[in-house]
Amino acid sequence: MIGTANTWGIIGKSSMLRLVLARFFAIGSFLIGIFAIGLFAIGWSFATPLHAADSDPVETLESLETDRNMRVFEPESPNSTTIAEVTYLLIGIQAVIFLLVGIPLCIILCRYRHRKADDGIEPPQVYGSNPIEVAWTVGPAITVFVIFLVTTRSIYEIRAAPAPPEAVHVRVVGHQWWWEYEYLEKNESGYTSLFTTANEMRVPLSEEGTPRPVYLDLESADVMHSFWVPQLAGKTDLIPGRVNHMWFQPEHAGWYTGQCAEYCGTQHAHMWLRVKAENKEDFDKWVANERKDAVTDPTVAAGRTLFLTNACVNCHTIKGTPARGQVGPDLTHLMTRKTLASGIIPNTKKYLLQWLRDPDSIKPGCNMPQMKLTDDDYNKILDYLLTLK
Amino acid sequence: MASIDTPSTPKDSTTVPLITRLHGWVISVDHKRIGIMYLLMSFLFLILGGVQGLFIRMQLWGPNGTVVDADTYNQLFTMHGTTMIFFVLMPMLGGFANFVVPLMIGARDVAFPRLNAMGFWLSFFGGCVLYYSHLGAEGLYGAASAPDIGWFAYAPLTSPAFSRGNATDYWILGTTLTGVGAISLAVNMVATIFTMRAPGMRLTKMPLYVLLFLVDAILILLVFPPFAAAQFMLLLDRFLGAHFFDPQVGGSALLWQHLFWFFGHPEVYILALPAFAVISEVIPVFSRKVIFGYLSMAAATIAIGFISCGVWAHHMFTVGLSDTLDTFFAGATMLVAIPTGIKIFNWVATMYGGRLRLQTPMLYALGFLTLFLFGGLTGIMLASPPFDWQASDSAFLVGHFHYTLVGGILFAFLAGFYYWYPKMFGRMMSERLGIIQFAFTYIGFNALFIPMHIVGMLGMPRRIYTYTDPSWTIWNQISTIGAFMMAIGLLLFLYNFFSSLRHGKIAGDDPWDAWTLEWNTTSPPPCYNFKEIPTVRSRRPLWDLKHPDDPDWKHE
């Protein structure tokens, strides 16, 4: 049983709506595609060019939350600049290909629509053409080869960069949901640990002729995380049982922001990164301070005793005291940090107290327990912590 | 009584009680009924997965969203991804494979009808097991009530220490069951296509649709067993104290990624090849021209099948593989662009010089072409590791793969629904509703996913339940509006689908004036498909019948 030669009529070709809409959307679909590429361009130009802020921006919760810059196309380091350049090239090539297919398709859609006069007539059947098919096999092959060469060159350019003598080495350990930084010193026998801090990384700026890139050894204490500060470098995962490496070299002073980029559980969204690039003198001053033991202020002895006799010590380290816990962030110089809870609240008296009393109200599901102390005890511990400069 | 001999549409359906008719479907081993049941299953889960997606979009409407909490959000994106891949797109694949392939090769059923039914019910119950986690996964106090591990479930987040309760186990069992269903589907397809073709239909005379499903089934057979193995290793880790993926006692967290993506990447092509198959039927019929370059299309398909098994580590450029491996997998991934390019060029060439009928199936096919092209091009960008180091796990990546999985594959399947609906039910779907639905779906889709590319380049990671950056807000809001537009589009589709069962115009046997064998029987086809098994001489047997003066076999 065979259908009649043309049963196109039963679909209702008289419907004006169908004809108008069909043409509108079929042709308009391509315009939307091209519009999409336009949106790309607009999206990037919307991003006002700004360097990392020079001042310390994190005095209030609002400024901390809004003063972030994670834009891939505002690179501030040689490797992220290389990536941005590769990306511009890739977008250019893809846009050209999109138009090379799209414009002919648009023309075909207009030129070869079925018209009433065509009823019952079939167009000439073309079964293929070897030269044409070879052409559009070889053409893409060459394009792909070019992209492949550019890609390979930039992979090696970024990955194979050797560490100069002044490089800073930091061991980064990912935790649910915060970052541990152990600054390392390179010597003949390998690396020795200088000090440990958390959540805010400080790095020195390079000077003419003295590059001071930062080399990271990435590890994880629990699940997978990913270190991503888009202005400084592409992301690299932190995987338990494995040491990964990456580097960056900030070009301007200021704060750079990022966040964990590999899903790592409940509070994945609140595992922020802050990197402060500052000049060498400030950096050295900070390092010298970080290497010291915690100050012992006799006026807050009560708070200190409370801290040391409660479960706080199970998780936190304060150098120069018996507190040696390895689970939570090192608190030795807590008050030199601008933020708390992996960068999501300002490190001020008000927020620190709220964090002590009820961590879940700030970061639901976090691993810091509510200690259930009296208000008086909380205030004493708070006073003690505020002296840890 | 209903039995395997019951025709697809009982003539006197009013006199047969509903329960008997339903029973007829449940016990059916008829490939057409199983195919339709696969499609209905995909609708059910499309609604569930779609609602989850809408909740995700509502939560991200603005900074510090409070629609859902962190745990719920994590469950939502895990269930959304798992549902859409395993319980929406896979059943659609199963539906189109089951309903169309046997008809197209002139067979009376698939090679193993009972295995076929088992495959469907396993897939369906796999979905039920996954969703039962909402009820049965409480386990330990405080544990999630649905899986919250992400659809690719990276170790060691799946270990008992980090995923308490039983939600993860429901996820493992649900996806494994549906995987076994997929394997039985593939066994059936391979056996059917190799042994049950109509006389004269040599392997080189098969319609492209059949060839693509053959390659697809072989891919399923290659990668679903390793997937099942990985899932059982994970179960052993969780219950019997094995340590495959536990780095603290010598296991490897990376091993899971290799095993998962060895399945996960070919899976993308397993879903894409059926989409290509539908498009390779729809574009020629609605352009009124034979497919341009059949042999290069066939070669490109087989090349895609091969290459797709060697590209999995492009999901792992950020895990710190060696430069050599990154380079290899980047190169292999970019190679896929060549056969895919051939396909797109050949489809466009098929339209060139044709008489394009812009009816609904063709509209969706055009939508597929534009969206899949866009997704493919961002795919080549992501194949370059330096760019991937920035874009991986960002919203850009989410935008990219939705362009391939939804813009590409779902649009192609929608074209397939409009195209084969008259064959399935004997009635046409409403053209008018179809066009309105296309407008909503197409515009909504672009509004939903284009902004994700932009916000990804502004640094927004995926899978975060909340954000504060004000420059991300506007793009997320456009996305959310697009999501609701698209939801309206898909609801219109479902309405059109079900209302046309009763109210659609009677289709006739061959409403599109098409060329493959399924249009040579009644709509809907009788249980035995063909009174007489047809003999074919070319890839377009009905063209030969309609144009005896200039048949295809003279040119092939």
Task: Describe this structure as you would to a colleague.
The complex is a heterodimer of chains A (389) and B (556). With 389 residues, chain A is of the alpha+beta class. Chain A folds into 2 domains: 250 residues, Sandwich (Immunoglobulin-like); 89 residues, Immunoglobulin-like (Sandwich). In chain A, a hairpin with a 2-residue loop joins strand 2 and strand 3. In chain A, helix 3 runs antiparallel to helix 4, helix 6 packs across helix 10 and helix 8 crosses helix 10. The relative contact order of chain A is 0.11. Chain B is globular. Chain B has a single domain, classed as Cytochrome c oxidase-like, subunit I domain (Cytochrome C Oxidase, Chain A, Up-down Bundle), CATH 1.20.210.10. Chain B is mostly helical and 556 residues long. Chains A and B meet through helix 1, helix 3 and helix 4 of A and helix 3, helix 7, helix 8, helix 9 and helix 10 of B.
- The CATH topology of chain B is Cytochrome C Oxidase, Chain A
* Helical residues, percent of chain B: 55-70%
Number of helical stretches of at least 4 residues of chain B: 15
The oligomeric state of the chains shown is heterodimer
SSE pattern of chain B, N- to C-terminal: HHHHHHHHHHHHHHH
Order of adjacent strands in the largest pleated sheet of chain A: 3-2-1-5-8
Instruction: Measure the end-to-end span of chain B.
Output: 47 Å
First CA to last CA of chain A: what distance? 90 Å
CATH superfamily of the largest domain in chain A: Cupredoxins -  blue copper proteins
* Major pleated sheet of chain A: 5 strands, mixed
Structural class of chain A: alpha+beta
Tell me the fraction of residues in β-strands of chain B, as a range: under 5%
Shape of chain A: elongated
